[in-house]
Amino acid sequence: MIREVTQIIVRDLNIARYSGGSWSQGAIFFVLFTLLAAFALGPEQAARANMAPALIWLAATLSSQLALGHMFTGDLGNGMLDCWKTSNRHISSFVIGKFITHWALVFGPILLMAPLGALMLGAPVSTLAPLLVSLLIGGPALILFGGMAAALTANTKGNGLLVVLLSGPLLASPLIFGVGAVQAELINTIDLKILGAISLAASVLCPIISIAALKVHLE
Amino acid sequence: MLSYFANPVRFQNLSKWMVPILGLAALGLILPAWIMGLFVVPVDYQQGEAFRIIYVHVPAVIVSSAVYGFLAAASFVSFVWRHSLADSAARAAAPIGAAFTFLGLLTGALWGKPMWGAYWVWDARLTSTLVMFFLFIGYITIRNTIRDENASARIGAIAAMAGAVNLPIIKFSVDWWSSLHQPASLMRAGGSGIDGSMLPPLLMAITGYLCLFGWLVLLSMLSELDERRARALIQRKSGRKASTASPQMEGNPDA
Questions:
Q1: Does the pLDDT value for residue B48 go beyond 80?
Q2: Domain boundaries in chain A?
């Protein structure tokens, strides 16, 4: 099982390496979003500084969803998943490997860009650490909800917007508690604990739902 | 019981009786409830005349949660036993549930303005109800975008069951978080907190809304059955003329 998961991770990282950097599009969108948000808020430094954690979280939420449309479509369309199943391997290891790779490839660059974006928006340096911790804890929930939506719509052409539409309402809860955790500069522990609980619950439920959905698509 | 109603003809025979009964019951309960609520019931000592919107608002939101529960249960039955009528019940319930949720949100906003001073506040009860509205919309979108009927039913069922996580959040949101929205006063331990003169029209309205929901679902299911039958007839006729045309192409002209 663990060998199968690592097989998927290594394969997907290799594909990403030779794909011409399409995995970085989420992070580029993230930076563009903060840039445009800074323009929209105008030159007033104080107002922007207050909103910075909320805007960074919003940017991370949206940009993490955009890259997920193709998470399962390729492997479902070219028959890779069929081969995986007929060679007597678990779909669960496939799904878990996919989630881990996507977290690393989509959310990793966002995590790297987050302090930069927060500083661009004028956030005080003391908020950077809480912001990163909350993104680190809440990030898996964002990828898991989005990946679940991607699995549900895996055999629909052009499902990018559909993924955002399905996962959007579910993303409200990590967003609320993620922003709540940063806002007091010190890490707000109750909000952070609830955020962790959401991530943990999602890591149990979302792979199960994704596996069920992929099995339907394979029927 | 499940397999008994899996037969569409049996279901149709039963619902031919049920449709007029439910429709008349809905009319006979909702109209008097509204008339009593608007003109007969005494004014609330705290909220004044504005409280009368309770007779539109509370039944709508209670029934919308019930409809989501119905959608999730029907999805479960259709997913586990591949019960096609349960699937068409789920499919029929979703737009009605979305409409009830929308009505509840709208009347809630109109009630919120005089009471809280704002049409909308981002509070746990309101947000989770809004999330339920989007879950209904998402379900409808899935059913409409996935062309293959079997996959559409199964994927929709998975999504509907996953969204059921939201139901307890809606119910307990007013207890878990300090909220502007008042906590439950109708269904709580130690009896209802609503005055005896205000209660009967409210209960009548809730039952009436439920009958309305049942009436609409049955009508929608019956029309879907008729549509399927008509499509099968058309297919059989055109199949006789040109047997080369694949049936799949006829089923979805824009696939």
A1: no
A2: 2-13+24-218
- Rounded to the nearest 5°, which phi and psi values hold at A154? -60, -30
Using CA coordinates, name the residue in chain B closest to A216: B151
> Looking at CA atoms only, how far is residue A163 from chain B in angstroms?
10
Q: How many domains does chain B have?
A: 1
Residues A172, B165: C-beta atoms closer than 8 Å: no
Residue with tokens 């794909």: A19
Do the domain assignments include residue B10?
no
**Position B188 pLDDT exceeds 60:** no
- In which residue are the tokens 């979305």 written? B98
Closest Cβ–Cβ partner in B134, B141, B151 for A155: B151
Tokens of B174: 């007013």
Please compute the mean of the pLDDT values over residues B82-103 and round it to a whole number. 93
Residue A78 burial (C-beta neighbours within 10 Å; 0-12, 13-18, 19+):
exposed
* pLDDT cut 70: percent of chain B above it: 84
pLDDT for position B66: 94
On the CB side of A93, CA atoms within 13 Å amount to 15
Counting as low any pLDDT under 50, the low residues of chain A are none
Among candidates B148, B158, B165 on the partner chain, residue whose Cβ is nearest the Cβ of A152: B158
Enumerate residues 147 to 166 of chain B having a beta carbon within 8 A of any beta carbon in chain A.
Answer: 148, 150-151, 154-155, 158-159, 162, 165
For residue B141, being part of any structural domain is answered with yes
When pLDDT is averaged across residues B159-176 and rounded to a whole number, the result is: 82
Roughly how many angstroms between the first and final C-alpha of chain B, as a whole number? Answer: 37
Does B138 contact chain A (CB < 8 Å)? yes
Report how many Cβ contacts below 8 Å link chain A to chain B. Answer: 49
Q: Please tell me which of A26-35, A63-72, B176-185, B191-200 the model is most confident about, judged by mean pLDDT.
A: A26-35
Nearest to B130 by CA among B102, B93, B110, B165: B102
Q: For residue B252, what pLDDT band results from cuts at 50, 70 and 90?
A: very low
Q: Is residue B45 assigned to a domain?
A: yes
Contact B82, B230 (CB under 8 A): no
Residue B188 forms part of a structural domain: no
Range of the domain at B85: 18-179+196-251
Residue position matching structure tokens 């996935």? B146
